[in-house]
């Protein structure tokens, strides 16, 4: 299949984890996503030049913390029986000490309650662990996509 892209590998691992798939990221990382939310998913893009640093384990920690914070904030409109659909894209920077700065709502869903839940998923999970010393950048810039009742790839 050719050489793999670390960003694509991470997104594939996230999709497998949400489906209970196999691989090094299988399982729920202690998230225990409620069964009534089978369509609550997400994706991440690493925007920083990682200069060869294996960001996968660190980003998995950020994803797990964000999901733990996000799931309780999901509005009733996105839960059964209504199952409102939406996609929210937020770009942000993680500073060396794990704090978050420069958050931008890049892709609003059109529903303030969905946007607020996604925003709160990030702010409620901070501070994240400090950036590892192996990463030489000042910040790690990420873009998270919060998908409400949309499967990754179906948006």
Query: Could you report the average pLDDT, rounded to the nearest whole number?
Result: 81
Neighbour order of strands in the largest sheet: 1-4-2-3
Order of helices and strands: HEHEEHE
Please state the structural category: alpha+beta
- Kindly state the number of beta strands: 4
> What radius of gyration results from the CA coordinates?
15 Å
* Distance, first to last CA: 25 Å
Question: What are the salient characteristics of this protein?
Answer:
single chain; 155 residues; alpha+beta; 3 helices; elongated
Structure characterization notes:
The protein is an alpha+beta fold. It is built from three helices and four strands, in the order H-E-H-E-E-H-E. Strands 1-4-2-3 form a four-stranded antiparallel beta sheet. Strand 2 (about 85-95) and strand 3 (about 100-105) form a beta hairpin. Helix 2 crosses helix 3. The longest helix is centred in the middle third of the chain and has 15 residues, at about 55-70. About 30% of the residues are buried. Residues about 15-40 have low confidence and may be disordered.
List the helices and strands and how they pair.
Blueprint: H1 6-18, E1 40-46, H2 56-70, E2 86-95, E3 100-107, H3 112-123, E4 139-148
Antiparallel strand pairs: 1-4, 2-3, 2-4
């Amino acid at each position: 299949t050719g050489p793999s892209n670390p960003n694509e590998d991470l997104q594939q691992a996230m999709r497998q984890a949400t489906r209970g798939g196999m691989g090094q990221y299988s399982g729920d990382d202690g998230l225990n996503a409620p069964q009534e939310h089978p369509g609550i998913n997400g994706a991440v893009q690493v925007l920083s030049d990682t200069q060869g640093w294996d960001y996968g384990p660190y980003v998995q920690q950020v994803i797990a913390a964000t999901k733990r914070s996000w799931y309780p904030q999901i509005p009733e409109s996105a839960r059964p029986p209504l199952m409102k659909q939406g996609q929210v894209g937020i770009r942000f920077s993680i500073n060396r000490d794990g704090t978050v700065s420069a958050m931008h709502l890049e892709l609003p869903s059109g529903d303030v309650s969905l946007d607020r839940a996604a925003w709160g998923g990030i702010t409620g999970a901070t501070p994240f662990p400090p950036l590892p010393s192996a990463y030489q950048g000042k910040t790690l810039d990420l873009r998270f996509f919060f998908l409400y009742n949309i499967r990754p790839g179906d948006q």
